[in-house]
Design a protein that fits this description.
About 30% of the residues lie in helices and about 30% in strands. By secondary structure, the chain is an alpha+beta fold. The protein folds into 3 domains: about 350 residues, Glycosyltransferase, CATH 1.50.10; about 250 residues, Beta-galactosidase, Chain A, domain 5 (Distorted Sandwich); about 150 residues, no CATH class. The radius of gyration is 29 Å and the shape is elongated. The N terminus is likely disordered.
């Protein structure tokens, strides 16, 4: 009894303290300080004034027509800035109408067992009433406040917290619904609770409960039994797609900002990783002349921007100049969800942009290990080249697209994701969600089982070993897990060398199969000799299949039965009622085999009429497939060791080609054009993927006990070395001459030599 009494007194004290800490209305978003600052900026800043006039014009129009409920923030801000009661009267009309309804629950959701009392519509109404109530609080009578608080509590807050949080009635769990709906439904109920703290004694406790549950949502680490991914990547980012990441994360941040404004003396759970989240949005974006694009893996669209969560992070104090750069790239209204400066919250929280950098200070490549997304680009300039790869889990809005990729080049999406359609169409589950709609390899027309749309993927696809050495970039993708129903081996390697991106697919099926290499072009495409040409405006690439065979150079496929065949597939086109279908390609190997290697080169053209193209020569022996790429006065020889593909367990995969001996799965050397015999004295670059040694005519050039991943770039007196693959590494690299400067894994180091042999040690 004493403990119960003590707990009750502490709870009452906490609630009282929170209520005392609350400021006077308005205190959620349009605080008195923010509105006062906006009024000053309207007078002194023409950009702010122009956008304010746009908002005021919209508010005036809402007085006579339009959906005032959906744009309650326009009317609310108009009242707070101008103090004209006509805007407050319209807000009051909306609030009283909403709060006089019998329920906000969705009829379809209520028919479920158990009934879902709260959904996104409930959350939306919580937001509407909270924003309006906070803004016109001084224009409401005691009876009107009582009616609004009662309706908001009965139809919004209690159904949401009852379904999602409260222990005695909760029907949802983070394992089943811990995605964007959680932050929306719970977060908006939390904002509604904050709005009515001055009238409802329990509201402060409800808000505190939401704060604790939102931290659990953010930190949810996934589960093994139902294959649910963790909510957030350790470095920022959310697996559900760019669209649902920006939505779900924004709902979380809206609550966090409202809580901070309403209860400035009450600390919230500290989540240091939030500062990384803006970087993920930037890495997953593509600056171009026009609207900035985003990666469109899953249920999203490339015009979706992350301006809203980036601005909210900035408002919460997580600030760096890169965020200003990103905000400056976004166009007003380029997507329906945003905090654009011509929208009320966007204008109020528009940062000062005077110190905006011209380019972000971010690496050109990034790998997100938990969600298995990777991005590689040649520059942060507009209309550069961006290669993005996805693997990871299939769950909710994340499609069956393990190992798929997207290529943006010269401002266009030249190799694309097929997209999506409305969820109630037959095309969405039958096509857009499935492997066939993505740039993957199929065995007998299959990759990931269709049931993964509803059951998830029990084994994740993985992206590892990203290396960005400037002249060479590398990434390994492994989709064996998600495709294990049909594949026993499904690796994809990306090697980006200058104007050539080489894709190597190392695949093995459970049984002899017909393998197909899928390509979804994003422009006008056609076969030209052995290439597939893709052109969109002034952007152009050539896709050249090279192994296990090339395409037929002419149109007479029947004369060359051993060559690969290019098959056109007509499939649904995303969200284009006037043109409901489009063409994509299958590059098909004519024989049924159990195991094979596809090697494909993507040639990046500087323009449609670019004739300065790399020369690519096929290299082949019984135990090796390779390429010799000549471009801009340099030659790169790339070798795929066929003995190193897992076919031998206890014997090392030692192989020899062109005076080189190695056990590496992939290896490459780069040297100036015209040199007949490359040696360590004239080689300017090395690349090794999964190798422990590299020898040239008996001299050991690279050595380590375990198979590692390495890129070495030798320029004049400088050596840049990337070395990874194990936590403890003792390695050596022979050099023709000692470098003056040495960078190891992008950090300057003091080199340690034994003669001309560089000794490297990396320890945990």
């Amino acid at each position: 009894m004493k403990h119960t009494l003590k707990y009750g007194l502490v709870t009452i004290a906490l609630i009282t303290m929170l209520q005392l800490q609350a400021q006077q209305h308005p205190y959620l978003f349009f605080t008195k300080e923010k509105v006062s600052l906006l009024q000053q900026r309207i007078k002194n800043d023409s950009f702010i004034a122009t956008n304010w006039n746009s908002i005021l014009s919209e508010a005036n129009e809402l007085l006579v027509k339009g959906d005032a409920r959906a744009k309650i923030d326009y009317l609310s801000l108009a009242y707070l800035v101008t103090h004209e009661t006509k805007y407050a009267a319209k807000v009051k009309e909306v609030l009283l109408r909403l709060c006089s309804m019998s329920t906000w629950s969705n009829e379809e959701m209520m028919r479920r067992q158990p009934a879902w009392n709260s959904d996104l519509k409930t959350a939306e109404n919580c937001w509407t009433v909270a924003i309006g109530y906070d803004a016109i609080y001084d224009r409401l009578s005691a009876d009107e406040k009582k009616k609004i608080v009662e309706g908001l509590t009965r139809m919004g807050i209690k159904p949401a917290l009852g379904d999602w949080v409260w222990p005695d009635t909760r029907i949802h769990t983070l394992n089943s619904m811990g995605h964007n709906w959680w932050s929306a439904c719970v977060g908006m109920a939390g904002i509604a609770s904050l709005a009515i703290m001055t009238e409802e004694k329990q509201a402060a406790e409800w808000a505190a409960t939401v704060a604790r549950s939102m931290e659990e949502w953010y930190r949810f680490n996934g589960d093994e039994l139902q294959f649910k991914p963790k909510t957030m990547d350790r470095d920022g980012g959310m697996y559900e797609s760019f669209n649902y990441a920006q939505f779900g994360f924004s709902e979380f941040l809206f609550f966090k900002l409202a809580y901070t404004n309403a209860l400035p003396g009450k600390p919230q759970p500290l989540i240091k990783e939030l500062e990384n989240y803006a970087n993920w949005f930037m890495h997953a974006s593509y600056p171009r002349n026009g609207e900035i694009w985003s990666l469109d893996f899953g249920d999203t669209h490339r015009t979706v921007s992350a301006e809203r969560p980036v601005k909210l992070l900035y408002a919460l104090g997580y600030r760096n100049p890169n965020m200003l750069w990103y905000i400056s790239q976004v166009h007003n209204n380029q997507h329906r969800e945003g905090l654009f400066p011509n929208m009320p919250l966007g204008l109020v929280y528009e940062p000062e942009m005077v110190n905006t950098p011209s380019l972000p200070s971010l690496p050109t490549s990034a790998l997100y290990h938990d969600m298995d997304w990777a991005m590689m680009r040649n520059s942060w300039e507009k209309d550069a080249t961006l290669l993005a790869v996805k693997s990871g889990y299939t769950w909710n809005h994340s499609h069956a697209d393990a190992n798929s990729y997207i290529l943006y080049h010269k401002g266009e999406a030249l190799i694309k994701d097929a997209g999506n359609s409305s969820y109630n169409t037959k095309e969405y589950p039958a096509y857009f969600f499935q492997s066939e709609a993505h740039n993957v390899v199929l065995a007998n027309g299959k990759a990931q089982p269709k049931e993964q749309q509803y059951n998830g993927s029990p084994l994740r696809g993985e992206l590892t070993e990203l290396m960005d050495g400037g002249h060479i970039k590398y990434l390994m993708a492994n989709a064996t897990g998600p495709t294990a129903a049909y594949f026993t081996r499904n690796f994809r390697h990306f090697i980006w060398i200058g104007k050539v991106i080489v894709i190597i697919d190392d695949v093995k099926a459970l049984q002899s199969s017909s393998f197909s290499w899928l390509l979804h072009p994003g422009g006008t495409s056609k076969k030209i000799a052995g290439d597939i040409s893709i052109v969109q405006n002034n952007a152009s690439i050539l896709v050249r299949p090279l192994f296990p065979e090339t395409l037929v150079q002419t149109g007479y496929d029947h004369d060359f039965p051993e060559k690969m065949k290019l098959k056109e597939i007509t499939a649904p086109k995303a969200r284009d009622p006037q043109n409901p279908t489009e063409i994509h390609y299958q590059v098909e190997y004519p024989e049924e085999v159990k195991q094979t290697k596809f090697i494909t080169a993507i040639i990046l053209k500087d323009s449609v009429n670019d004739n300065n193209l790399p020369q690519i020569e096929r290299l082949h022996s019984e135990t090796m497939n390779g390429l010799r790429i000549t471009q801009n006065g340099m030659v790169t020889e790339l070798y795929l060791n066929l003995l190193a593909d897992g076919r031998i367990m206890h014997l090392n995969s030692i192989n020899s080609f062109n005076n080189w001996e190695t056990d590496a799965y992939l290896s490459a050397i780069t040297y100036p054009e015209g040199i007949k015999q490359p040696t360590p004295g004239n080689i300017t670059g090395y690349f090794v993927a999964y190798g422990s040694f590299l020898r040239n005519n008996g001299r050991t050039v690279f050595n380590t006990l375990s198979k590692l991943f390495m890129i070495a770039s030798i320029k004049q007196n400088n050596l840049d070395l990337i070395l990874q693959g194990q936590p403890l590494i003792n390695a050596s690299l022979y050099l023709g001459k000692k470098p003056v400067t040495f960078n190891l894994n992008h950090k300057k180091q003091e080199p340690v030599f034994s003669g001309n042999e560089l000794n490297i040690r990396i320890a945990p």
